[in-house]
Specification:
Blueprint (H helix, E strand, L loop, with lengths): L15 H42 L13 E3 L2 E3 L4 H25 L4 H17 L9 H29 L5 H28 L8 H19 L1 H6 L15 H15 L4 H31 L4 H29 L1 H21 L5 H28 L6 H14 L3 H13 L2 H7 L1 H12 L3 H7 L9
Length: 463
């Protein structure tokens, strides 16, 4: 059977050997893009872009010092120290508008595999081109960051939607968890190599900036190269249940999007899940995002200790995703995710009481974060896939991605406000517990079986 065969419509139309082959290929996109997410987006690029911006604003000054000279973007003064965060915020907001259209286009196409590969390879080229960001060329860095992040979001919309095509209702928790697990493992391996490169740059005859640029290049190449596995291992499928809209493909995409938004209230449990996800995912992303600042400023840990912590979380998350996948097969995804939110609330409570300088206790907390991190995210994806109307998978997953990206600044805003009011990071970290409480309370009201029936999907044995 060739990749152009589009007659099959889902996992129920594929023999088990073909389904297993496609699932194994699908896993590797998590492995591929996690290199960019961990090495570039999470750890290295924001600090590096800040150094480049400071060089533009205050030439010749030590990058460890603050730069009071503003850069100007469209006439707006921007602090060099804030440039990277503003760029990420702009990309996040922009993606919230772009991704639903990408999803609608993907649902109407018989070539989702090609759309996935197209977004991935353009993003990988942009990520690799970050090698050329040096000196005071911050404009190129911002442009490449926008392209890479938008392409990552577009590829993930299609990637998540393909889960519905390659795995039946009873298999999705397992398949989603294995994908997340492999992603954490891949991210850990390349991040460990690159952090070793950056740490030992002097002994290798490199400047720190050169070591960072080599690391950025490897992340882009890794992303692009490993995308070949899902590209050649997945099959295209004909679109199903597409709402008829007259006009061009782009007009049809916007028409389908408008139709879905108008009729979303017909899927109340899908809506409630999305609302719950907005809260608890924002809490998860904020805890991960502020943990380095909390560890350094509040608890007094060194950069090397924080690097060790990041690697430990990545490694433990690999096992955590597999563990939660197994638990979901016995207890159901919703109850396991609810349990994970209790553990997340425990994480922030422990963080609040953690004594300064106790690195062993900090590593213990990192292990707990790793255990719940992969599992809660993997099972959220698989549970949502059950609630998505068939034929509109990519469009609904674009809403999933857009909701995540469009509101993921609430937690950091709350964290910043509480810190400003109290002049301490301890009450700021504790305040994040509200996201897990609200998310859990809303998730408890989601009747997953009824939501699956409303969406017209087959019910798994355990939900």
């Amino acid at each position: 059977m060739t990749h152009s065969d589009v007659g099959q419509t889902g996992p129920d139309a594929v023999d088990p050997r073909q389904a297993t082959k496609e699932q194994r290929a699908w896993y590797f996109y998590d492995w591929a893009n996690s290199a960019y997410v961990t090495t570039t987006a999470t750890v290295l690029f924001a600090p590096y872009l800040t150094v480049v911006a400071k060089e533009a604003g205050c030439p010749g000054q030590d990058s460890d010092l603050s730069c009071s000279t503003n850069l100007h973007v469209l006439g707006i003064p921007i602090s060099p120290g804030s440039l990277a965060f503003y760029a990420v915020t702009f990309a996040t907001i922009l993606s919230a508008f772009v991704l639903p259209v990408v999803g609608a286009l993907a649902d109407r196409s018989a070539h989702q595999r090609r759309i996935l590969g197209g977004f991935a390879w353009v993003g990988a080229v942009a990520a690799s081109a970050m090698w050329f960001v040096q000196g005071d060329n911050w404009q190129l860095g911002v442009l490449l960051l926008l392209i890479a992040n938008l392409c990552l979001g577009g590829s993930l919309v299609v990637y998540d939607a393909i889960l519905c095509q390659i795995a039946g209702p009873d298999d999705r928790d397992r398949v989603s968890s294995r994908g997340w697990a492999l992603g954490y493992l891949g991210g850990f391996i390349l991040l460990a190599i690159n952090l070793a490169l950056v740490t030992a740059h002097d002994s290798l005859g490199l400047t720190k900036g050169e070591a960072v640029r080599w690391s950025l290049l490897t992340a882009g190449i890794w992303w692009g190269a490993f995308t070949l596995i899902p590209y050649f291992g997945l099959r295209d499928r004909a679109p199903l249940n597409v709402a008829p809209v007259e006009g061009s493909l782009v007009r049809e995409a916007f028409g389908q999007l408008g139709n879905t938004l108008r009729h979303l209230r017909g899927f109340p449990h899908t809506l409630k899940f999305l609302l719950a996800y907005l809260f608890f995912n924002d809490g998860i992303q904020t805890v991960i995002g502020v943990s380095s600042v909390y560890g350094a400023e509040q608890l007094g840990f060194s950069t090397n200790q924080l690097i060790e912590t990041i690697l430990l979380v990545q490694l433990v998350a690999f096992g955590g995703a597999l563990l939660f996948g197994r638990a979901a097969r016995r207890f159901g995804a919703r109850d396991v995710v609810l349990s994970s939110l209790v553990l997340w609330a425990g994480v922030v409570a422990i963080g609040f009481f953690l004594p300064r300088g106790q690195f062993g206790l900090w590593l213990g907390l990192a292990v707990l974060i790793g255990v719940v991190l992969g599992g809660s995210q993997a099972l959220s994806r698989s549970m949502y896939s059950q609630l998505v109307p068939r034929g509109r998978e990519a469009e609904y997953f674009s809403l999933y991605q857009a909701c995540e990206r469009g509101t993921s600044w609430f937690g950091t805003l709350l964290f910043g406000i509480v810190h400003q009011l109290t002049d301490s990071y301890r009450p700021a970290i504790l305040a994040l517990i509200v996201f897990f409480v609200l998310g859990g309370l809303i998730l408890r009201t989601v009747d997953v079986r009824q939501g699956i029936r409303d969406a017209g999907n087959v019910e798994p044995a355990i939900v």
